[in-house]
Prior knowledge:
The chain is α/β, with parallel strands linked by helices. It is built from six helices and eight strands; from the N terminus they run βαβαβαβαβββαβα. The protein has one domain. It has helices at 23-27, 39-42, 59-63, 78-94, 129-136, 149-165; strands spanning 2-5, 34-37, 52-54, 69-71, 99-102, 113-115, 123-125, 140-143. The strands form three sheets. Strands 2-1-5-8 form a four-stranded parallel β-sheet. The chain has a two-stranded antiparallel ribbon with strand order 3-4.
Amino acid sequence: MILVSACLLGHKVKYNGGSNPHELLIKHSDCGRFVAVCPECAALLPVPRPPIELLHSGGRKILAGKGQALDREGRDVTSFMIAGAQNILKIAEAHRAKLAILKESSPSCGVHTVYDGTFSGKKIKGPGVAAALLQDNGVRIFSEKDLTEERLLNFIAADRNEEQKI
């Protein structure tokens, strides 16, 4: 199975109650290989909710206890971000997922970048909290920006072949 950020599949789980539908992922969503996940929802954060950013740190610093996640109202939501990441890892393990396609720049799912915590639109390099935890536990992570149809079809085919071996 392939974990996919739920917002990319059109689920209205984004902080503002919207989604980030990705045409290619939605086109292939009936393949039976995707598990929709949202770390913020898995942490029982509400929809809608204030936007969250990682204060001058990436997900690995948060997981190491050396960073902080704040919402726009200044509330510390670090524990929610960690809990959501841990819950998504449990889902990955339960489904034997070895691949995830995640929403770039999200504080949970960002693969290459996250917002820097100043709520100014500035991004810093590094993964989000859930992305870092998945990657550190052997799940290959990609952002929706890394996808081409050929690459996605190869992921789906490889996932089917891997399951047939079990």
